[in-house]
């Protein structure tokens, strides 16, 4: 395999941050699900949880910055007792808030208030739904997940989510079930919209197609099936230099549950500290927003997962497929 770094050099330079537009906050690894593709390796047995002190350090950093969007993820971030505090505080700072919601979390004990809480705080809800068929969703995310996801989506629709006139954004996320790249996003979005509307009466705004990253839990999944080498070669052979301009790390900063910062959530899981420094981990309480512009991004061969085909990011494909 040719090193990703060399590919970037061949394509004309290095990956550097621009103005950061998204502060992605990973509130911890605890989750009510344990999906097979999960790069966080989240699940019900995980104990890592962001504390109130760390949330306050993040809010201080946010207040000192002009970063417009806070993207909250996990695990299931809503199961962190400090989730509501982070959302309400970020809204007071007049930032746009996104929550990466697994949908089933709203059926966890004491969490049925979440849809109304999202609406009250104008939270953009981004939900995983890797297929419109129950079999595929349950295979990847656990038995019964599809039915609960549909119930949660209907409730969000009843509150106005997904209706373009409401301004309440409801976006869905697709990722492949196995060792293959996502299909073209626009076409799949049309299929999702038609089938979810016809069969369940569900509407939503955008579908984001993500490629699976061959690290952590999905790497184990691939290795168990003897598909790891095949998949990483597939990603490398599909390298698309046109995606380099818009890889998400250029405009995103990722904060882990313990307050350390990374160029993206994948680097966080691989413990690859923020680029452009001396290789040591950097804590949000020691970072100035001014120190991000033009900062070198830490890359590795896993970055082929973001740059294959139409590219992949938390906001879906990077170029038209
Ligand atoms: S719901 Fe999300 S965080 Fe939880 S295990 Fe699945 S992919 Fe990971
Ligand atoms: S994994 Fe993707 S987002 Fe992260 S540093 Fe590599 S290219 Fe950027």
Quick summary:
By secondary structure, the protein is an alpha/beta fold. Helix content is 32%, strand content 12%. It has helices spanning 4-10, 52-64, 83-92, 114-120, 134-141, 145-158, 185-200, 216-224, 228-237, 265-269, 304-307, and strands at residues 22-26, 69-73, 96-101, 124-128, 170-174, 207-209, 252-255, 260-262, 282-283.
Characterization of this structure:
The chain has helices at 4-10, 52-64, 83-92, 114-120, 134-141, 145-158, 185-200, 216-224, 228-237, 265-269, 304-307; strands spanning 22-26, 69-73, 96-101, 124-128, 170-174, 207-209, 252-255, 260-262, 282-283. It is of the alpha/beta class. It has a single domain (18-213, 248-298), classed as Aldolase class I (TIM Barrel), CATH 3.20.20. The protein has a 9-stranded mixed β-sheet with strand order 6-5-4-3-2-1-7-8-9. The radius of gyration is 19 Å and the shape is globular. It starts with a helix and ends in a 14-residue tail after the last helix. The model has no long low-confidence stretch (mean pLDDT 96). Residues 247-249, 263-264, 266-267, 297, 299, 302-303, 306 line the site of one iron/sulfur cluster.
Key terms:
TIM Barrel; binds iron/sulfur cluster; alpha/beta; nine-stranded mixed sheet; 321 residues; 12% strand; 32% helix
Tell me how many strands there are: 9
Overall 3D form: globular
Mean pLDDT: 96
List ligands, each type once: iron/sulfur cluster
Structural domain tally: 1
Portion in helices: 25-40%
CATH level 3 topology: TIM Barrel
| Unreliable residue stretches | none
For the record, the CATH architecture stands as: Alpha-Beta Barrel
Note the gap between the termini: 24 Å
Beta-strand residue fraction: 5-15%
**Order of adjacent strands in the largest pleated sheet:** 6-5-4-3-2-1-7-8-9
CATH superfamily: Aldolase class I
Please work out how many helical segments DSSP would assign: 11
CATH level-1 class: Alpha Beta
Rg over CA atoms, rounded to whole Å, is 19 Å
SSE class: alpha/beta
Largest sheet: 9 strands, mixed
Order of helices and strands: HEHEHEHEHHEHEHHEEHEH
């Amino acid at each position: 395999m040719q090193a990703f770094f060399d590919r970037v050099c061949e394509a004309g330079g290095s990956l550097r941050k621009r103005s950061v537009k998204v502060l992605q906050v990973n509130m911890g690894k605890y989750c009510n699900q344990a999906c097979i593709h999960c790069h966080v390796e989240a699940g019900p047995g995980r104990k890592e949880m962001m504390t109130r002190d760390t949330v306050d350090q993040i809010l201080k950093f946010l207040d000192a910055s002009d970063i417009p969007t806070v993207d909250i993820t996990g695990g299931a971030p809503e199961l962190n007792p400090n989730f509501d505090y982070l959302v309400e505080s970020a809204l007071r700072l007049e930032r746009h808030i996104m929550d990466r919601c697994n949908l089933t979390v709203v059926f966890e004990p004491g969490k049925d208030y979440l849809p109304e809480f999202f609406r009250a705080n104008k939270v953009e809800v981004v939900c995983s739904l890797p297929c419109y068929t129950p079999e595929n969703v349950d295979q990847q995310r656990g038995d019964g997940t599809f039915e609960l996801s549909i119930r949660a989506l209907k409730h969000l629709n009843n509150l106005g989510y997904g209706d373009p006139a409401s301004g309440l954004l409801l976006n869905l996320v697709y990722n492949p079930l196995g060792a293959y790249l996502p299909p073209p996003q626009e076409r799949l979005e049309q299929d999702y919209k038609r089938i979810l509307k016809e069969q369940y009466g569900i509407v939503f705004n955008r579908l984001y197609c993500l490629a699976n990253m061959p690290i952590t839990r999905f790497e184990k999944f691939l290795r168990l099936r003897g598909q790891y080498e095949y998949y990483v070669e597939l990603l490398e052979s599909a390298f698309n230099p046109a995606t380099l301009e818009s890889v998400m790390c250029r405009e995103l900063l990722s904060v882990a549950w313990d307050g350390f910062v990374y160029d993206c959530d994948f680097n966080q899981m691989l413990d690859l500290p923020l680029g452009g420094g001396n290789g040591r981990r950097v804590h949000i309480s020691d970072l100035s927003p001014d120190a991000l512009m033009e900062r070198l991004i830490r890359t590795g061969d896993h970055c082929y997962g973001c740059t294959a085909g139409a590219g992949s990011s938390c906001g879906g494909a990077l170029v038209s497929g």
